[in-house]
Amino acid sequence: MDVVAACRAFVAVSGHGSFTSGAAAAGIPQSVASRRIAALEDHFGARLFDRSSRAVRLTSFGREMLPTARRLVDLADAMADDAERARMRPLRVAVPEICPPNRLAALVTAGRRQRIHLQVRPAGPQERARLCQTLEVGAGIVAVPEATASWRVPLGLAARTPFPAPTVFLETLRSGRARTQARRRILIQPEDDVAHLRDPLTRAGQSVGLAPAQVTVAPSLVDAAAAALDSPDLLLCSRQQAEDFALHWCPLTEPRLLRGYDIAAGVREDLEQLRTVLYADIARCLGAPDGHPRSTGGSPPGHRSAGNPA
């Protein structure tokens, strides 16, 4: 027996003094209301209504039980309201600030269709890690090494003029090899100012004889892109970013650089929803190939080390 449904019928009938009117108010057929109240009477072993006359009157037992029945119905309604609010409560997610707004809007829309109500907070890699660690967000798309990443974004160099070859060799950027390429800088945007990307590129530049200042971190993506648009300097970026800035893009021969991203979340359900249900939508925001989610068996990196900037 559904006790809540039976109590709802009991309260409705008692309030209207009629099985017909009470059933209508409860949104159920009269026969259903009668069966539910009869089941409740059988359950408690006593009559709730006096049916000896045409009028429906509460018995003394019914009058004693009515306040409790009302509290149960009110509590069930309050619980249903709380459940709906909980489903509608936004999941605050720290996302890379390089994600285009139109693609973030598409991600939020895709989440709503799956009853996942996202509230995105763009931030740099270190700030995303901090927001996850301090629980200011429920989840974050954090920067991780390629080996542990759920999403991987190939990086290359972007310039205002086309590249003469299908790939770029760092040694061709050495000072003095060609006047037009003298002291060309590789500009690292803040999103890629993480050890597993910055350090291999810096070491590779040193090994082929680039000047220390030729591999440098720019204050912002806008500053880096503006320099690449207005000078021979090169922007380290994804193909999607190069297209957004109308720059020519070319992959590096060595080192092979890929941005890695994973989810850090305090609740495993949030972690799995972002990694699986919204995998392709997040990939489009990041400019990553739309492949398939990697296996999340065991303890996922993003789950055990929430906010690790790697």
From TrEMBL:
GO cellular component: protein-DNA complex
Gene Ontology molecular function: DNA binding; DNA-binding transcription factor activity
Entries under PROSITE patterns matching the protein: HTH_LYSR (PS50931)
Name of the protein: LysR family transcriptional regulator
Keyword Plastid annotated: no
Gene3D superfamilies cross-referenced by the UniProt entry: Winged helix-like DNA-binding domain superfamily/Winged helix DNA-binding domain
Ranges for domain HTH lysR-type: 1-59
Stretches for region Disordered: 290-310
Keyword Transcription regulation: yes
Family of the protein in this entry: Belongs to the LysR transcriptional regulatory family.
Keywords: DNA-binding, Transcription, Transcription regulation
Superkingdom of this protein's organism: Bacteria
Organism: Phytohabitans flavus
Xref: SUPFAM superfamilies: Winged helix' DNA-binding domain
